Amino acid sequence: MTTTENSKFVVLDPTAAPRKMVQAMAPVLEGLGGRSIGFLWNSKPNGDLLFERLEKLLREKYEIANVVYKRKPTASLPAKQEVIDELVGSVQAAIVGLAD
After folding, report:
1. Measured distance CA(48)–CA(29) in Å, rounded
2. What residues make up the domain containing 81?
3. How high is the pLDDT of residue 9?
4. Are 34 and 63 in contact (CB under 8 A)?
5. Among 7, 74, 3, 63, which residue's Cα sits nearest to residue 36?
6. How many domains does the structure of the chain reveal?
7. 61: phi then psi, degrees, rounded to nearest 5
8. Which of 13, 22, 59, 90 sits between 20 and 30 A of 4, alpha carbons compared?
9. What is the pTM (predicted TM-score) of this model?
10. Which residues contact 19 (CB under 8 A, 6 or more apart)?
């Protein structure tokens, strides 16, 4: 067996520097009363049931005016731009289902 005295061990750091946000955050709503709320479901099981229950709670507590439901075909794909545009044009707040 031979050994090399000049061997090197290289350690790579896979982290990236934080990125600056280029998208401005939406302004904070004064409240939900009388507002239209959008739900964007990622098609995971029971997400529709969760959103239906959440809608009921929001109607009872905040007296929301209207609800718009949209659905992504699968959790692994982003929502189509048309879906995003429709939500932007028709609701004042959106709740997005992203997890199990």
Report:
1. 25
2. 36-96
3. 85
4. yes
5. 63
6. 1
7. -85, -40
8. 13
9. 0.73
10. none
CA–CA gap between residue 62 and residue 97 (Å, rounded): 20
**pLDDT tens digits, one per residue of 57-89:** 999 999 999 999 999 989 889 999 999 999 999
Q: How far apart are the first and last CA of the chain?
A: 53
In a domain, 76, yes or no: yes
What are the start-end ranges of the H helices in 1-100?
47-62, 81-90
Residue 49 is assigned to a structural domain of this protein: yes
Question: Residue 8 — pLDDT band, cuts 50, 70, 90?
Answer: confident
Cα→Cα distances 90→10, 15, 66, 84, 87, Å? 54, 39, 9, 10, 5
